[in-house]
Amino acid sequence: MIRPRLEERLKDECLKLVSSEVSALQNLVNDSCQSMARPACVCLIEETSHSGRELGVVTELISGRIGDDAEVVIKRCLGKMLGLPATSLENLSLPEVRPSGH
Predict the structure, then answer these.
(1) What SS3 state is found at 19?
(2) pTM for the structure as a whole
(3) Rounded distance between C-alpha atoms, residue 26 and residue 66, angstroms
(4) What would the pLDDT profile of 55-91 be if each residue is shown by its tens digit?
(5) Residues contacting 55, CB < 8 A, separation 6+
(6) CA 62, CA 40: separation in Å to the nearest integer?
């Protein structure tokens, strides 16, 4: 008779623990993503401007794809954010990125 109640109580406590850990993990990930978003955005804008590929990048983004122009800018920012020379990731193959909702 006590076993079902004890099992239920243990399950409830486990769920509380997991949900609090998930919440803490979500906060950590959210904070990490937020702290990365601003410098990444600044870099993407600056590198787009410095590369002279503004029209190409905007055209690609409007069409919902990452083409040659955006890829160059992304690789330059990845390198910059990782402290690597600007051209060090030129030969890196980026995974295919699909617009959300597709």
Answers:
(1) helix
(2) 0.61
(3) 28
(4) 998 898 888 888 889 888 888 888 888 898 877 888 8
(5) none
(6) 19
